[in-house]
Amino acid sequence: MKKKTVMLAVIALFLVSCGPAVKYSSAPTLPEIRSPSYPVAQYTIQTGDVLDIKFYYNPELNEQITVRPDGRISLQLAPEVMAAGLTPSALSGILNEKYGTELREPKVTVIVRSFGTQKIHVGGEVNRPGLINLAAPMTIIQSLSEAGWLKETARTNEVVVIRKDEKKKPLIFTVDLDKALDGTDLSQNVLLMPYDIVYVPRSPIADVNLWVDQYIRRNIPVPFGFGVGWTLNE
Known about the structure:
Blueprint: H1 2-17, E1 50-55, E2 63-66, E3 72-73, E4 81-82, H2 88-99, E5 108-114, E6 119-124, E7 130-133, H3 140-146, E8 159-164, E9 170-175, H4 177-182, E10 197-200, H5 208-219
Parallel strand pairs: 6-10
Antiparallel strand pairs: 1-2, 1-5, 3-4, 6-7, 8-9, 8-10
């Protein structure tokens, strides 16, 4: 009887050890969002950004222009337009209004060709953690390459990305890098936004709120995109 009891205990222990890894769950104030429906905040134009101004019906007016340190741009028929702090679509609307007095049917589109002084932070199980300049659109795989690629201890199926929303609250989602690398789900190779934080964990994160507080506040230099005063409970 004793041998049978011991055998059952051993089998139970074996089954538990073979179970799936425990994945972290976020606190109610910090919901987890998983790819591919990851949050994409509307980008706001910054000084130093290079913009393509495209005219659908009047291509001769197309321009590529850099946002000046004062946040303004100057176009042929619309001098001194404030661009910094606006989304590309908002700036397109303003330019459509301004060119409406000169053109019969203006249709202006603003495209951010390259970023000015934007950065992202890559940390965790990478060979060169730290800040990376985001001079042009960059995917998560490209960012990891810039960071010296992954260590052997990296947990590649649950790479964490932290992004701020318009109210500077953190939005968290995870990326299955394995699927991006083997081609089974290329949507996992997400396009990063300025001031995103990419963290490659070594093991599952049990308490997201605690981890965000410890990692961001203690390991990332303060002036980063989230800034002073960014709290988890706003």
